[in-house]
DNA sequence: CGACTTTACTTGAAAAATGTAAGGAAGGGG
DNA sequence: CCCCTTCCTTACATTTTTCAAGTAAAGTCG
């Protein structure tokens, strides 16, 4: 994990579909050498995968929210519930504090948020934060 | 944005470095057709970019936290401060509520969190949530 | 010191993927 | 019916990747 590896990770974080040849040029290596280093970063588990950044608004999910969840009773009903809400759930983080989660979601409109919260209410207490900007 | 486009985005979200030929096979198209569709998704702004998933723990940042920020006075000191904290900041979301942000950070250890919070204290009030699991 | 191994890189050729161009089939509208 | 557009395919030239040697520097150990 030297400077060049950091440079490589930085380039890949900006565009992971870059060719190894181009990546090599950016970090002053041949395509081979760059490719070898990337392979090693993958083997070591430093690189876990490659993904795409999708514009959620254009996909029909313009509303982005975080929900601070507090559950005093069993967690299972909550966890089962969010599994049924697949398209809306982005991340469910277990956080410090008893029975606490931070739930990141996307919705087509505020009406959908409302509907979701009505169902969520049956399994957990929550505090809603709507994302205005990044 | 038909079923095939959704299928393409799903495949790319799992592995954006897949070849167009392979992607085509997965969605029952030729490599060209897949490539054309991806190009169109990029033009339309549905695809905003391609990135890499890095294991933060292996990069020396095993501690992952969210900070709920509330600022009653000017925001600028806070915003300037977090710009100086580059390596630790993952995301700074502007959220609903006056003077509120949700700040996502990574740290090498709890000591670093402590040091960071001591400085943050000078610009804003916060509530700390440490991520245990995803 | 000197022989051996390892690591990181380069080069060149073969194999694979991509980009380009031309063309065909399906659907819509005048 | 004809024309146009969209979406896809095929074929081929170009580019990239992969594979196989090979070099050079650095570390190991008798």
List keywords for this structure.
homodimer; 134 residues; Arc Repressor Mutant, subunit A; Alpha-Beta Plaits; 2 domains; 4-stranded antiparallel beta sheet; 5 strands; 38% helix; DNA-binding; Tscrpt_reg_AsnC/Lrp_C (chains A, B); transcription regulation (chains A, B); Lrp/AsnC family transcriptional regulator, leucine-responsive regulatory protein (chains A, B); transcription (chains A, B); sequence-specific DNA binding (chains A, B)
User: What's the rounded overall pLDDT mean of chain A?
Assistant: 96
Largest sheet of chain A: 4 strands, antiparallel
How many helices of chain A in DSSP terms? 5
Helix content of chain A: 25-40%
| CATH homologous superfamily assignment of the largest domain in chain A | Lrp/AsnC effector binding domain/regulation of amino acid metabolism (RAM) domain
Q: Please provide the ordered H/E string of secondary-structure elements of chain A.
A: HHHEEHEEHE
Q: How many structural domains are formed by the residues of chain A?
A: 2
Most residues in contact: chain pair: A-B, 40 and 40 residues
Give a quick summary of the entry:
By secondary structure, chain A is α+β, with helices and mostly antiparallel strands. In chain A, 38% of the residues lie in helices and 30% in strands.
């Amino acid at each position: 994990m030297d400077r060049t590896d950091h440079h490589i990770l930085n380039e890949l974080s900006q565009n992971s579909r870059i060719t190894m040849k181009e990546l090599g040029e950016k970090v002053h290596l041949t395509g081979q050498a760059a490719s070898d280093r990337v392979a090693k970063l993958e083997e070591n588990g430093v690189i876990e995968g490659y993904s795409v950044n999708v514009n959620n608004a254009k996909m029909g999910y313009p509303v982005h929210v975080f929900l601070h969840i507090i559950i005093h009773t069993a967690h299972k009903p909550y966890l089962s519930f969010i599994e049924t809400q697949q398209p809306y759930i982005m991340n469910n983080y277990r956080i410090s504090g008893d029975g606490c989660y931070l739930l990141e979601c996307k919705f087509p409109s505020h009406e959908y948020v409302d509907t979701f919260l009505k169902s969520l209410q049956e399994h957990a207490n929550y505090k809603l934060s709507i994302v205005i900007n990044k």
